[in-house]
Amino acid sequence: MLVLLWGLEADSPLAEVRGQLELLGVPTTFVDQRRLLETEVEIVIGETVAGCIRMGGESINLAEVSAAYVRPYESVRLPEIAAAGPESAAWQHAIHFDDILASWSELTSALVVNRFSASAVNGSKPYQLERIRSLGWSVPETLITTDADEAKAFWKDHGEVVYKSVSGTRSRVSRLRAEHTERFSDLSSCPTQFQQYIYGVDYRVHVVDDKVFACVVCCSADDYRYPANETPEIRGCSLTPDLEEKCRKLAAAMNLPLAGIDLRCTPQDEWFCFEVNPSPAFTYYQQMTGQPIGQAVALLLANAAPESCSMTGSALTSDLYLAKD
Amino acid sequence: MLMILATRQDETAAWLANRWQPHGAVVVSAADLSMSGWSLDLCSPAKSSACIGGRKVTNQNIDGVLTRMPCVHEQELNHIVPLDRQYVASEMTAFLLAWLSSLACPVLNRPTPDSLGGPGWRREGWVHLANRLGIPVAAVRRNAANRKNDAEDQTTCEVIVVGDQCFGEAAPPLIENARMLAKAAGTGLLTVHFSGAAADSVFVSASPWPNLASPMIADAVLRCLHGRSAC
């Protein structure tokens, strides 16, 4: 058994899981992006998935890896690589290293938290939302348009509307207000996402395989991640067994052993799902609630044997690859 | 009406649009996404629309879509201020993934979260899938030091899959393997490379971007887009 961690030492969720694995005494190897230029990777894909990583004097046989927690940042944005520039050997090494290790993480039979193919769904919010809806969740009415008249009609229909990015690019969710109408002529430049505003209380639910950690977020801002002068109050809470199970099924259907699910409960007790984050910064919520999310991730990784977890099969067993009869 | 989603520089797309003119084929590029008329209503997809050839077309009036670009590249967005191009390219790509996925008409290839034109897999992903299907494969070795793509050196035979049709001079088992691979990958369009044309040749690589600049293949694609051939 060997657990591979890939990312930056300072990344809070990665550091937390690494610490928990050390406490558990689990053999762990850390592929530190800061040491990228002294790290080599090779994979061979054919009848088997094989490969190795060499860091300094250490050599890791990728066939021995039973689980991986991957949270890499784009290596070319690291100061040393960015300064070297796209034509440099360092830049080229970084691009190929990232691509090769990402490729291995897609094909290995080890448990990967989370595979990039599963995370990619989050790159299009409406695409992901449609999947969420198809899995039985209520989702807000959503319109993406380049047509100012359609946007105005949608706003009129729903009274309160928010706008936010369509892609995975982080954006602040903002309420549409009268002063925005003068910018409606810009809508034709780029499809823009509008969403029915749902009144209610926010919940963040972390699913770690079969474990569910829920917390309630009390904040008056449209987007509690940007609370202005207010500090959001985040408290651990329980969900009904049915709702917990629904969250588990949502994460499983999306091939995400670890997921951060954003929910809102209306005064009428209707639960809406907005998004499933495939790479949640769970430590923020853990610090506020004391919930042992990092420990649960570490246990998930520690207990994984290839092909043993419900979601550990390689990407080739995912719905992306299944034959369509 | 047929939509060919392609870059402005795509000569094959222009050739296909000309050939399919009687079927109302129009090339739509990234710049067209900066026109009023596009919409995707998640809860009522029937209300969704596109801007094709400068006019608004509801999704029900689109008979088929051929996608020839994996994403919107910022280089296609000269009409957007440079500072915003990367963001707009991401937004347009994300929109197209959802919009194309919402269409009920034939779409070649159906988009996936990592490519608008079907599976965005690396060569090793295709090799892995082929191996799982029992197709003999040539192993792929990759390391950061050796960046040469040796697939071209190993390939001497190409089979193009268009829906349920296959094109290429290859032994029947290879044709069947190509068809099986396309089906498993869920792609209507696929180029499959083998080490040779003989029955004992091995799989080398595949790509969801076949060369369509041939009348015979273009006609097969047209049949798929019109739903007259499985795809």
Written overview of the protein:
The complex is a heterodimer of chains A (325) and B (231). Chain A is of the alpha+beta class. Chain A has three domains: 3-110 and 306-322, no CATH class; 141-196, ATP-grasp fold, A domain (Dna Ligase, domain 1), CATH 3.30.1490; 200-291, D-amino Acid Aminotransferase, Chain A, domain 1 (2-Layer Sandwich). In chain A, 29% of the residues lie in helices and 26% in strands. Chain A has nine helices and 16 strands. In chain A, the strands form four sheets. In chain A, strands 14-13-12-15-16 form a five-stranded antiparallel beta sheet, sandwiched between helices. Chain A starts with a strand and ends in a 23-residue tail after the last helix. Chain B is of the alpha/beta class and 231 residues long. Helices cover 30% and strands 21% of the residues of chain B. Chain B is built from six helices and twelve strands. Chain B has helices spanning 11-19, 82-102, 123-132, 151-154, 172-185, 215-225, and strands spanning 2-5, 25-28, 39-41, 49-52, 55-58, 64-67, 107-108, 140-143, 157-162, 165-167, 189-194, 203-207. Chain B starts with a strand and ends in a 6-residue tail after the last helix. The mean pLDDT of chain B is 94. At the A-B interface, strand 3, helix 3, helix 5 and strand 8 of A face strand 3, helix 2, helix 3, strand 8 and helix 5 of B. Strand 3 (39-45) of chain A pairs antiparallel with strand 8 (140-143) of chain B.
Oligomer: heterodimer
Which structural class do the helices and strands of chain A define?
alpha+beta
Biggest beta sheet attributes of chain A: 5 strands, antiparallel
Which range best describes the helical content of chain B: under 10%, 10-25%, 25-40%, 40-55%, 55-70% or over 70%? 25-40%
Number of DSSP strand runs of chain B: 12
Structural domain tally of chain A: 3
The separation of the N and C termini of chain B measures 18 Å
Strand order of the largest sheet of chain B: 2-1-6-7
- Unreliable residue runs of chain B: none
Q: In angstroms, what separates the terminal alpha carbons of chain A?
A: 37 Å
Give the largest chain-chain interface (CB within 8 Å): A-B, 59 and 54 residues
